[in-house]
Design brief:
Layout: H1 3-34, H2 44-65, H3 73-96, H4 100-122
Helix pairs in contact: 1-2, 1-4, 2-3, 3-4
């Protein structure tokens, strides 16, 4: 499989897993406490947009730009994931009006879900 084809495969799985984790995370954080379904701020369309936008905005940089500057896989993965988690946390915080701590945890959960799916798929 070419690098570009692997990227497209990773993008699809990232979109699906991170958006699902985002929806589940928001549900667990807010619906149980504040009635998520009643707030237009947390509509399905907004959650889908946020999940897709965050992945589309960060994954290409992680796959195509960052490797040009960091040759060590360990430092590339560490730096890249920290960068992605922080950027997505900033976006989630601004888009959903979340506190920095909540948006950081939400971004971390989304990226761990994506990482888990990626590791699982690499077995097959």
């Amino acid at each position: 499989m070419t690098y570009e084809a692997a990227f497209l495969r990773a993008l699809v799985w990232t979109l699906l897993s991170e958006t699902a984790a985002l929806g589940a995370g928001l549900y667990l954080l807010f619906r149980l406490r504040q009635g998520l379904s009643e707030s237009p701020l947390f509509s399905r369309k907004r959650i889908l947009f946020a999940g897709f936008f965050a992945s589309f905005a960060t994954l290409p940089y992680l796959w195509f730009l960052l490797p040009q500057y960091i040759s060590s896989y360990f430092f590339y993965a560490l730096t890249g994931e920290i960068f992605v988690i922080l950027l997505e946390a900033l976006f989630f915080g601004a888009y959903f009006l979340l506190s920095p701590g909540v948006s950081l945890v939400l971004s971390l959960v989304c990226n761990l879900a994506s990482l888990g799916v990626g590791k699982f798929l690499s077995l097959y």
